[in-house]
Amino acid sequence: MEDHNTANLSEPASPANSVASAEIAAEFAALSVEEKEQRRAEWSQELARVEEEINTLRTVLASKTRHASDLKRKLGITVWKEVTDDMNQGLKNLKESTVYQRTESVLKSTGEKTASVFGSITSGISSKLSQMKNSESMRSIEASVGSAYENVKTKVTSRSGSVSSFPDALDENNTSSGLNSPTDSLNK
């Protein structure tokens, strides 16, 4: 005997389907044995016809799909072009959406405000540095550094008896004290 509960497994479980199934089962139970067999035979024939139509439609769809692919190939439409076109259309739709336009507006406004803030910070720092450069404290530091440099230069000149650069004076001092630089061994 056939199991007729398989149809119920494919249907979504909802109260309406449950009631309808119960009604159909009640009607079917009320039929005589001959009527039940006749109904089953009708349903089997109808099922066979529907399955045949489905197969025919699948065959026609496959044929139409192949034909469409051939036409696209002849027109030079590749899968890559289709994907690119789909992406471009999607981006166009996104850019035209109100959500995108609002987001773009907010980002543009935020960028302008950020640029304004950074501009004023940079301007303030530049102004402060300019004030510091022209201040008495900075002039005093410049004078101190300058005089320290002159003192070192004078001492180097007076020790060696000749005018030389600071690195030359260091080399002369290291040689006279017996210290060798790492590059001395390379030169020898």
TrEMBL record:
KW Coiled coil (keyword) present: yes
Recorded coiled-coil stretches: 33-60
Alphabetic keyword roster: Coiled coil
Top-level taxon in the UniProt lineage: Eukaryota
Polar residues bias spans: 1-19, 156-165, 172-188
Region named Disordered: 1-20, 156-188
GO CC entries: cytoplasm
Pfam family of the protein (one): TPD52
Family membership noted in the UniProt record: Belongs to the TPD52 family.
PANTHER family attached to this UniProt entry: TUMOR PROTEIN D52
Name the record gives this protein: Uncharacterized protein, isoform D
Organism field: Drosophila erecta (Fruit fly)
Taxon lineage: Eukaryota, Metazoa, Ecdysozoa, Arthropoda, Hexapoda
